Amino acid sequence: MIKVEFKYTAVGDALRETAARLDDMTPLHQGIGEYVVNATKERFKKGVAPDGSAWAPKSPVTLANYLAKGDGARPDPLIGPTRRLSNEIASLASPSGVEVGSSLEYSAVMQGGARKGAFGKDGRGRPIPWGNIPARVWLGLSDADEAAIIDIADEYLEAEFDQRGFNAPQ
After folding, report:
1. For residue 78, what is the DSSP state?
2. Are 29 and 98 in contact (CB under 8 A)?
3. How far is Cα 137 from Cα 127, in angstroms, rounded to an integer?
4. Residue 134: is it exposed, middle or buried by C-beta count within 10 angstroms (0-12/13-18/19+)?
């Protein structure tokens, strides 16, 4: 009887090490988060939603309020005097995923819109908000973003396997 025994300890060790590294996908998620933050900031410059549609313009009343407060003409949608929403987009990566968004209270209103008075009344009995706010979807993924994220993941996995000496078949 012939006995053949294969001992691939180096391969086994490399596979186990790669699997352990893939248990913590934080570096990949950080890369994805950075990409989405940058793509979102670029959309602010263009004034468009992830699907490429233009954001609703500011109302004449809003524009007049900016002028009355001395903030100048601010015609670009979602760009106010402080530019906080466009500047404070952040990502938070973990081993299991990534979150991208804003901690600003009004960010959800800008994303989904709000009807006049949706949040009750102020101390003087005026509706909050004082007028309808159209949805201006600022957070999300375009088809190009989805493709880019797949590329980021492919590059990450390829680099992980290349470090172990595993080359993808051509």
Report:
1. T
2. yes
3. 23
4. middle
Q: 26-46 and 143-163 are packed helices; what angle lies between their axes, rounded to 10 degrees?
A: 150
Is 99 a member of any domain?
A: yes
pTM for the model: 0.80
DSSP state letters, 14-32: HHHHHHHHHH--HHHHHHH
pLDDT in tens, 81-129: 889 999 999 999 999 899 999 999 899 999 999 999 999 999 999 999 9
- What token pair was written down for 31? 């890369």
Q: Would residue 122 count as lying in a domain? A: yes
Q: How far apart are CA 151 and CA 66, in angstroms?
A: 42
Looking at the structure of the chain, the number of domains it has is 1
| Residue 145 forms part of a structural domain | yes
* Token pair in block for residue 32: 């994805």
Distance CA 76, CA 55 (A): 9
Inside any domain, residue 102: yes
Q: Are strands 97-101 and 90-94 parallel, antiparallel or unpaired?
A: antiparallel
Quick: pLDDT tens for 58-79: 989 889 988 998 888 888 888 8
Look-up of token digits 């893939």: 22
Containing structural domain, residue 89:
25-163
